[in-house]
């Protein structure tokens, strides 16, 4: 006899409540989530909160912070640092989230196929993953962008192509273990196909490491994008935190604010995603009971 609907719903609500308690029990996690929410809001509403055109300069160059009409100061071309930092949020989040999503999809597909079917398909897919995993992400991204030109789309594609192998190996290990579980055998007996078993039965039970690694991949992608932009390989049509740091190299002593604010934005964003990944890892740990 199937489990009554009310107890099942109560169990789902209880698990969700326990997950929220474990996720938000540390104050640093609340700070990280709050910062990321503010960051997303700035990216969405950048034209309304920036106050200035980030690409247009003026006569008031190298104005220090708290100057009239430029509360974070201006750069060597008179461009507003606050406006450029706000618009740089768009590029960092776009590259980070998009490349992480593509990497998660590719890693889940490859890992699920390898772990479920095994055999020659498993060996082939894992050898391909191992090859990509041995490549240094930043060096390969640097070479590819330098050879084929700079654009946000190319940057996302390159970072995603280098990020999926680790997740594929983790998913493969989880799926390989779960395919022998009793609930999977019951699904086969019930006539469920392989695709439905993978999607509806196995992957939901392997979601925890996927979510955690996905959040960490966002932070890594933001770092790679900022590094490429720092070396002059970012998209020149968009403002980037890394490009702002590149512009500030000659003014580290005379105009510290040109490097301080984009550098702080990169550090806090990457730190927030890493802290969120750690919190998700703890909250999704099946050994952790309700607290």
Could you explain the architecture of this structure?
By secondary structure, the protein is mainly alpha-helical. The chain has twelve helices and no strands. It has helices at residues 5-24, 27-44, 46-49, 81-117, 119-134, 137-148, 152-178, 182-189, 194-202, 207-230, 241-247, 257-283. α4 runs parallel beside α7 and α11 packs antiparallel against α12.
SSE diagram, text form:
Layout (H helix, E strand, L loop, with lengths): L4 H20 L2 H18 L1 H4 L31 H37 L1 H16 L2 H12 L3 H27 L3 H8 L4 H9 L4 H24 L10 H7 L9 H27 L8
Helix pairs in contact: 1-12, 2-4, 2-12, 4-5, 4-7, 4-10, 4-12, 5-7, 6-7, 7-10, 8-9, 10-11, 10-12, 11-12
Overall geometry: elongated
Please state roughly what percent of the residues sit in beta strands, choosing from under 5%, 5-15%, 15-25%, 25-35%, 35-45% or over 45%.
Answer: under 5%
- Care to count the β-strands? 0
Q: Helical percent range?
A: over 70%
**Tally of alpha and pi helices:** 12
- Helix/strand/pairing class, anyone? mainly alpha
- On the 0 to 100 scale, the average pLDDT is 86
Outline the biggest β-sheet: none
Query: Compute the gyration radius: what is it?
Result: 23 Å
């Amino acid at each position: 006899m199937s489990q009554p609907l009310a107890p099942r719903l109560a169990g789902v609500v209880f698990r969700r409540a326990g997950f929220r308690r474990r996720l938000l029990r540390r104050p640093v996690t609340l700070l990280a989530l709050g910062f990321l929410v503010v960051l997303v809001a700035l990216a969405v509403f950048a034209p309304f909160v920036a106050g200035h055109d980030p690409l247009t300069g003026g006569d008031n160059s190298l104005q220090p912070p708290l100057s009239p009409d430029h509360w974070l100061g201006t750069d060597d071309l008179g461009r507003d640092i606050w406006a450029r930092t706000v618009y740089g949020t768009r590029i960092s989040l776009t590259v980070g989230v998009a490349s992480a999503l593509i990497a998660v999809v590719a890693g889940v597909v490859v890992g699920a196929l390898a772990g479920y079917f095994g055999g020659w398909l498993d060996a082939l897919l894992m050898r391909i993953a191992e090859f990509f995993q041995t490549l240094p992400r930043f060096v390969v991204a640097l070479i590819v962008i330098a050879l084929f030109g700079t654009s946000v789309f190319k940057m996302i594609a390159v970072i995603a192509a280098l990020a999926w192998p680790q997740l594929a190996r983790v998913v493969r290990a989880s799926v390989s273990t779960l395919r022998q579980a009793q609930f999977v055998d019951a699904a086969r007996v019930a006539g469920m196909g392989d695709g439905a078993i993978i999607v509806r039965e196995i992957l939901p039970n392997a979601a925890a490491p996927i979510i955690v690694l996905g959040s960490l991949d966002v932070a890594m992608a933001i770092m790679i994008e900022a590094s490429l932009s720092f070396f002059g390989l970012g998209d020149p049509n968009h403002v980037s935190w890394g490009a702002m740091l590149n512009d500030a190299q000659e003014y580290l002593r005379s105009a510290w604010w040109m490097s301080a604010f984009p550098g702080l934005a990169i550090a806090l964003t990457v730190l927030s995603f890493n802290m969120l990944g750690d919190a998700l890892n703890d909250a999704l740990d099946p050994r952790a009971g309700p607290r």
